[in-house]
Design goal:
456 residues, alpha+beta, BirA Bifunctional Protein, domain 2, Rossmann fold, 2 domains, globular, RNA-binding
Length: 456
RNA sequence: GUGGUUAUAGCUCAGUUGGUUAGAGCAUCAGAUUGUGAUUCUGAGGGUCGCCGGUUCGAGCCCGGUUAGCCACCCCA
């Protein structure tokens, strides 16, 4: 037996980490509920059909496929060998694999809506917090198993939904104490307009992919790559102007109008962006129109979001989303539009860790530790402990009668703020010692008063 | 999936051109202390040097492979 290990890109979460993660997740959940969203869970695995082709060519490669059972069936050996040949050619084959781990939460959600649209009341607002899997090569902040945390509204074209989602972002990050996050917004139709003017709509994919890299590789490289993807000098110049747009939201919109204003798609996009950021209006600095925002995923058709971590930490986006007009169409149910956002929980965790934003009392679980000082002593302690627990104060009795030193150290390690000492002497007096570890102060309290002691 | 880089005690790391029995700090455990936790002092345990193979009289060190972490590309949260 070799040393136990984990599959590449996966992690165990110890108690401390789970507490911190739950702090983030519970905050997000509370806000989702506050805005009227309902919970949904879908299976870890989906039929491979449901996932393939939904995330682009690259995405397909990153889907974790599950090997079928019964491949050792001798009676089917010939067929299976033929099937496997096809797998070797890079094609999926139902004989070998027909299920896969889910790659994100949006497509399974679309599948759910397509299957249940007759029963759902629209607009259907759901949130979903579950792990997803990608066969990507891990790096800092990138894992093969990670949690996504999504909220979507389907069955409504109203831009009010975008306003609500932007507010959810703002509310969550403010509750988590993450100042200086920027919610960047752009519109797919604006990118489409740019593509129409620069070489046609079929160039949109190329253009968005390259634009997306701007802050990583810089303007010069972007221009080079655009030429490499078949754009001429004039078109590159327009894109350069487009990328150079800067200033306040109003100023940016004005500049875009002069550049692309005649285009119908651009007009529509501008109109919707204006609606969103004017309506949002609580704090202009957190919602920023950013025309360099592209987002790779193909199914977005309207406003797109991305949340940038505070500039003081080096971290990519910690959230993203957008509007898709026909997601369930992929599953044979057309005309159900939707819009959604996603929180990058692992990255938010890293950012909060780096900025030291987790509350100090997050590790307190047990509030009171009863010392164990003998059989009859601990019997009394047990009795009092159960009464404390009934009052909702989480408590423990040390498991054996050992010296003080050990019991104190246990309390310290578990961050237990109070210890209760009941020994022979206390039993006789009908009292107990209550010691607050942070101050070192100890009080003697009668058993009668004990239950009203303010452990806080 | 392509390329680069790293791997030594539970943790953070030393370890000379290849040469006896691989070290330190922190942590753990025991004792000084049979009813009071930062501390101090004394002592102890802990390692197939990631794993497999090769070169060599001899490998933690050199070579090949493999696994995992990190970094870049691709893509993305």
């Amino acid at each position: 037996m070799s040393k136990p290990s984990l599959p590449q890109g996966t992690r165990d979460f110890g108690p401390d980490v789970v507490r911190k993660r739950n702090y983030i997740l519970n905050t997000i959940k509370k806000v989702f509920e506050l805005y009227g969203f309902q919970p949904l869970e879908t299976p870890a695995m989906e039929n491979l059909d449901s996932l393939m082709g939904k995330y682009g060519e690259e995405g397909d490669k990153l889907i974790f496929k599950i090997l079928n059972n019964g491949l050792d069936n001798k009676e089917k050996e010939k067929q299976l060998r033929e099937d496997f040949e096809k797998v070797l050619e890079g094609k999926n084959n139902k004989g070998i694999t027909e299920r896969a781990l889910k790659y994100d939460l949006t497509i399974p959600f679309a599948r759910f809506v397509a299957m249940n649209h007759n029963q759902l009341t629209f607009p259907f607002k759901r949130y979903q917090i579950q792990p997803v899997w990608r066969a990507d090569r891990p790096q800092r902040g990138r894992y093969r198993e990670f949690y996504q945390c999504d909220a979507d509204v389907v069955g409504s074209n109203a831009l009010l939904n975008e306003v609500e989602l932007a507010n959810i972002y703002q509310e969550v990050f403010s509750q988590l104490g993450l100042k200086d996050c920027t919610i960047k917004i752009n519109h797919r139709k604006i990118l489409a307009a740019l593509a129409e003017i620069c070489g046609g709509l079929e160039k949109m994919m190329d253009i968005t992919i390259v634009i997306d890299k701007l802050d990583k590789i810089g303007l010069e490289k972007v221009k080079e790559e655009l030429v490499g993807r078949g754009l001429d000098a004039e078109q590159v110049t327009i894109i350069e102007k487009y990328l150079g747009i800067s200033g306040s939201n109003d100023e940016r919109i004005a500049q875009l109008k002069t550049l692309l204003g005649e285009n119908a798609n651009a007009k529509k996009g501008i109109e919707e962006l204006e609606y969103l950021y004017l309506k949002f209006a609580t704090n202009d600095s957190t919602l920023a129109v950013d025309f360099t925002l592209a987002r790779g995923l193909n199914y977005y058709t309207g406003i797109i979001f991305e949340v940038a971590a505070p500039p003081s930490v080096k971290m990519g986006s910690i959230g993203g989303g957008g509007r898709y007009d026909d997601l369930t169409g992929l599953f044979g149910v057309p005309d159900i539009p939707g819009v959604g956002i996603s929180f990058g929980v692992d990255r938010i965790y890293d950012v909060m860790e780096e900025l030291n934003l987790f509350p100090a009392d997050i590790h307190i679980s047990t509030q009171v530790l009863f010392f164990n000082l003998g059989e009859t002593e601990s019997q009394k302690a047990f009795e009092l402990m159960q009464q404390l627990r009934k009052k909702g104060i989480s408590s423990e009795l040390y498991h054996e009668n050992v010296k003080f030193d050990k019991q104190f150290k246990y309390a310290e390690k578990k961050n237990i703020p109070y210890v209760v000492i009941i020994g022979e002497k206390e039993l006789e007096e009908g009292s107990c010692g209550v010691k607050k570890l942070s101050t070192g102060l100890q009080e003697n309290i009668s058993f009668n008063e004990f239950l009203n002691y303010p452990f806080a």
